[in-house]
Amino acid sequence: MNGRRLTFAVGDIHGCLAQLDTLLDAIESSAPGGRVIFLGDLVDRGPESRGVVERIMAGPPKAGWQWMTLKGNHEDMLLAARKGHAEMSSWLMNGGDETLDSYGGAIPLSHLVWMAELPSIIVEPYRIFVHAGVDDAIPLEEQDDDILLWMRTEPNYSGHYWGRHVCHGHTPSRSNPRTVGNRTNVDSGAVFGGVLSCAVFDDDVPGGPIDFLIAGRRR
Q1: What is the pLDDT of residues 103-135, one digit of tens each?
Q2: pLDDT of residue 117
Q3: pTM exceeds 0.85
Q4: What span, in angstroms and rounded, lies between the C-alpha atoms of 9 and 28?
Q5: Contact 49, 79 (CB under 8 A)
Q6: Measured between alpha carbons, how far is 70 from 80 in angstroms, rounded to an integer?
Q7: Which residues, listed in sequence order, are joined to residue 130 by a DSSP beta bridge?
Q8: Exposure string over 144-179, b if 16+ CB within 10 A, otherwise e
Q9: Domains and CATH numbers, the chain
């Protein structure tokens, strides 16, 4: 992969720190530099949400790398949990208990601020990176977080997406990472006994991924 400008788009981590470290090692071994985009859902359900957040907040340990992070619906639920009892209950029932345990019961304000400031989408000439997906029946500039963080896309659907390729996570499947036409899903269900995966894109070439990298083994 040397000589190319590469982007590695990482699927839902959900507190699986060991798999994240394994995948990051594989990414750094595959190229001398590049960009890593974390597609959201860093937290909840898995055992080491705090470790995952701290690892990503610290940034790349090697020169030549850039890390970018998108907000997922689980970061959205975590932040909403501060609003009231119903929101807190919803978050706890969806993996928030494990996150609180990893933090010893209290999440630092610096982590909350960092999550709150995460963008929901990255739009580039050739690609769109987003946590859940985009609705190609609605103008791109009118997409809101209800869509970007929460929508579900049928497994075999591929839209036009304004001439771009969409890369997302959010909907786990053992058949992922998988590309269908103009859309790639990299949520391989790491926290559900699957693997943590990423799609590799050549920044200078339109279209889908040129490769996939996978950490861990399927059960």
Answers
A1: 999 999 999 999 999 999 999 999 999 999 999
A2: 98
A3: yes
A4: 13
A5: no
A6: 17
A7: 121
A8: eeebbbebebeeeebbebeebbbbbbbbbeeebbbb
A9: 6-215 (3.60.21.10)
